[in-house]
Amino acid sequence: MSSAAAAPAENVVDLSRDADALYRNPYEVLARLRNRAPVHFVRLPGGSRLWLIVGHEAGHAALTEPTMSKDWLRVTGRVGPGAIGTSMISSDPPDHTRLRRLVSKQFTARRIAALAPLIRSVTDDLVERMARSAGPRDLIAEFAFPLPVTVISELLGVPTLDRTAFAELCAGIFEPSADADAARAHVEQINDYFDRLIAQKRENPGDDLLSALIAARDSEAGRLSHSELRATTFLLLVAGHATTTNLLANGTLALLDHPEQLTALRADWDLLPGAVEEILRYDGPQPLSTRRFTTEPWRPPGSDTVIAAGQTVMVALAATNRDAERFVRPDDFDIRRTGAAHLSFGHGIHYCLGAPLARLQVGIALSALLTRFPDLRRAPTELHYRSTLLTRALTRLPVLLW
Question: Which domains does the chain have, with CATH numbers?
Answer without folding.
Answer: 9-400 (1.10.630.10)
